Amino acid sequence: xxxxxxxxxxxxxxxxxxxxxxxxxxxxxxxxxxxxxxxxxxxxxxxxxxxxxxxxxxxxxxxxxxxxxxxxxxxxxxxxxxxxxxxxxxxxxxxxxxxxxxxxxxxxxxxxxxxxxxxxxxxxxxxxxxxxxxxxxxxxxxxxxxxxxxxxxxxxxxxxxxxxxxxxxxxxxxxxxxxxxxxxxxxxxxxxxxxxxxxxxxxxxxxxxxxxx
Length: 213
Description:
Elements: H1 9-17, E1 24-28, H2 40-44, E2 48-52, H3 59-65, E3 70-72, E4 75-77, E5 86-88, E6 96-97, E7 114-116, E8 120-122, H4 123-129, E9 138-141, H5 147-151, H6 156-159, E10 163-167, H7 173-181, E11 185-186, E12 194-198, H8 202-212
InterPro entries: EGF_Rcpt_Signaling_Reg (IPR053202), FkbM_mtfrase (IPR006342), SAM-dependent_MTases_sf (IPR029063)
GO cellular component, one term: late endosome membrane
Protein name: Putative methyltransferase
């Protein structure tokens, strides 16, 4: 079987969900829908879900690559806004929403080439508008260091996704504390920027074994 995620995170999740035929995922920062995707495998397996990507150049690829997902061209933020400043790189990765008018966005290996203005929505708004099921299986977040804005617009106690995969390459104790406070257990991570958190502690050993096999 082919896996698509950056460090086979989808392989780890497949160990848990291999027998589930009707799961639901939410992919925030879905990129092209295939490249480094934590959720593409599960669409191929027949799951449904929501893919969100604000980048004007990537969104058409996402729509083409993920025909069985609800694809949304919005930025996920802590508020619902008509538009937000989205500093885009030509290839998509490292693009970022940046509202601070007094300071420039973080420097990247290559410069931003475009300032786009997508609509912004809270994750709660998106989930409500599209009737996402309570306790859905996978929430994947890859938003280039704006994770807190996503989480601040998300009622984790209401939706309680079974698995949360979130990208942050540096050690961020406050995020670990946030998930502990909401009774999520972290899977010991491999050499990956992605961290996996489990709602149900019984899932931790299954995912850990799947990730190391």
